[in-house]
Amino acid sequence: KKQPQRSRGEFQAVLFRPEDLNLVIDSPASRRRFLDSLLSRLSSSYYQNLIEYRKVVQSRNRLLFLIQQGRAESKEINFWDKQFLRLSELITEERFKLLKKATPVFREQYQKISQSKDVFDLDYHLSFKFKTDLKSSLKVALDELKPQEIELARTLLGPHRDDLIFKLNNYNLKDFGSRGEQRSAILALKLAELEIVKKKIKEAPVFLLDDVLSELDSERRLALLDSLDGLQSIITATEISFLKSWLRENQANLIHLE
Known about the structure:
single chain, mainly alpha, Glutathione S-transferase Yfyf (Class Pi), Chain A, domain 2, 3-stranded parallel beta sheet, 3-stranded antiparallel beta sheet, 10% strand, disordered N terminus
């Protein structure tokens, strides 16, 4: 995929779609995509490292297959291991930094939406055991898993295998949270994303809500609409009866499309 050029005056937006509401219960890959998408917008170097990392993993997997087939020597993997370790460290550190920045905002937004004092955390779950520091821990795990990786011809750890865990009062929201709590968490996450992008570009991005309001109950719908105060927002909806009073109060423009 080609990274769009960033330029002054470029249209900046945060998109909120119905499928985003399943982020807590979806596969780890969907949560990694969220992190990668946001970080790629915030940092061109992150995007470049991510592209390079994916190429390294592909090349490493090909070589693991050749070693498995007896068509390459095990020591040949050393070159790709070095590249893999370097890029894994860079990507993982950026993800950690993002979560450190996002968690307080996310926690505040969740408490506003849920009208509770529940403590929410965004935890980064590594695909290997952390011991002393990131790079050496990853190298130890890589060496330990090498026979299994050769057998499966696949890289079994690294940023492409990590996960983002939503925790409410120290419980994994995916396993123990109600549907309402999970949806409140995603609302808080999108509002935190909005704040982070706003700080980066030094102006409020447009908030695009793509037919997402109909997926929310009245309480969460109201909480989300209240958060739009002072923002430029574009809302698409197939049913607007629940929006009419809000549209009047906020003097919003209404466009009907056939």
